[in-house]
Amino acid sequence: MQTDIFKELFPLFDAASAETLEWLLAEAVERDYPSGRAVLMEDAWGNAVYFILSGWLKVRFLRSQDATTLAILGNGDFFGEMAILDESPRSTDVVAFTPVRVLSIPAQKFIQFLFKDPQLHHRMLQLMVRRLRKTNQRTQLRQQVPAVRIATVLTGLADAYGNKNESGIDIFNIPVQDIADLSEVSPEDTTKVLDKLKEKGWIVVDPKRQVMSIANEKQMSQLATFR
């Protein structure tokens, strides 16, 4: 992959030199996964960092026979870096919602890359702080009504990974249970809220294409910021 294309996909590397990026990409391997496949098992955390070139995935917390969705990731994002930095075991895995293509970089090579580029070190810390803030915001959302929680989840995904077009902002048509997990709303109440949003025309779902469109971005954003 060309370094300029990689930078465009992953702003984390904006400040990295072409030479350093070429060294890193020479160690990277592109991998394809079908929908439903585990991209990263719980016992494989810490082996590599994965950069999402295309597709949608979910990060799940595993406990006994139960799995709870913790996050949904799309193209331009990455995962696996935390396990490398703290070297602790994980009770989570990453599963593909759709066909996915990722670029994997071995853990030790990525660590060497961090030491080579102090600016990247700083950018990585900034991103980790941003993710921590999102976790804190999710905790604060527990005080809000279900509609606000769900609107916040959907608009957040649209902002991060959505494809904007004339009909709205397209995201993957996330299953009800996963939206329920992310918003910490029961599946029954999640279904009711989604049905209401469809009735209002604020979201439009195309099951055949597996697409949910945020058709009324303004109203959804206002609902998400309602306090």
Write out key terms for the chains shown.
227 residues, alpha+beta, Jelly Rolls, Arc Repressor Mutant, subunit A, 2 domains, four-stranded antiparallel β-sheet, globular, WH_DNA-bd_sf, transcription, DNA-binding transcription factor activity, Env_Response_Regulators
User: What is the tally of beta strands?
Assistant: 12
Characterize the main sheet.
Answer: 4 strands, antiparallel
Secondary-structure element pattern, one letter each: HHEEEEEEHEEHHHEEHHEEH
Number of domains: 2
Report the top-level CATH class of the largest domain.
Mainly Beta
Indicate the mean pLDDT.
88
Structural class: alpha+beta
Task: List the uncertain runs.
Answer: none
Please provide a written account of the structure.
The protein is α+β, with helices and mostly antiparallel strands. The protein has two domains: 3-139, Jelly Rolls (Sandwich); 144-224, Orthogonal Bundle (Arc Repressor Mutant, subunit A), CATH 1.10.10. The chain is built from nine helices and twelve strands. Helix 7 packs across helix 8.
